[in-house]
Specification:
The protein is mostly beta strands. The protein has a single domain, classed as Nucleic acid-binding proteins (OB fold (Dihydrolipoamide Acetyltransferase, E2P), Beta Barrel). Helix content is about 5%, strand content about 45%. It contains one helix and seven strands, in the order ββββαβββ. A five-stranded mixed beta barrel has the order 1-3-4-6-5. It is globular and about 60 Å long.
């Protein structure tokens, strides 16, 4: 079996551009910049930036278009794909892009983590583990967490 997997964390380089396929499925495209830093032989800090073309379809495309804009952080998991087409002069053009399988919004306003949306199956409440109880300091009481009686439908979550 072969593996084609890309994991990126970076910032959007432009606002997501939404289009629709002839079948009616939404598609969004945008760029993500990633960087790396290192010290050269002289101990001076160096930095390089790479730019990546990203594509998402269906519900993921709609969420990205609705909630993200240029400069927003995003974590992307997907596959690398190269498309080709002939331009107006008949010259072959190529574009390598990452097709999103899963993504996670980056932190917003100093938050430590963002929400996550996966195109695959989501964890059900039966498969999710309950939070571990914390022990209270002597003389303190802990607040009790009340869980809803009914299962939460992932479709009801607005992000």
């Amino acid at each position: 079996m072969y593996i084609n997997k890309a994991l990126l964390y970076g910032n959007l380089t432009r606002d997501p551009e939404m289009k629709a396929l002839p079948s009616g499925i939404s598609v969004v495209s945008f760029g993500v910049a990633t960087n790396r830093t290192w010290k050269d032989k002289n101990g001076a800090k160096q930095e390089s930036v790479d730019f990546h073309n990203i594509v998402a379809f269906a519900k993921q495309a709609e969420l990205i278009h609705q909630y993200l804009k240029k400069g927003s952080p995003i974590f992307v998991e997907g596959r690398i794909q190269t498309r080709s087409w002939d331009d107006k002069e008949g010259k072959k053009q190529y574009r390598t892009e990452i097709v999103i399988e899963n993504f996670q919004f980056g932190p917003k306003g100093g938050a430590s983590s963002g929400g996550e949306y996966s195109g695959g199956a989501s964890a059900s409440s039966a498969g999710a583990s309950a939070p571990k109880a914390k022990s209270a300091a002597p003389g303190q009481e802990l607040d009790t967490i009340e869980y809803p009686e009914e299962d939460i439908n992932p479709e009801d979550i607005p992000f």
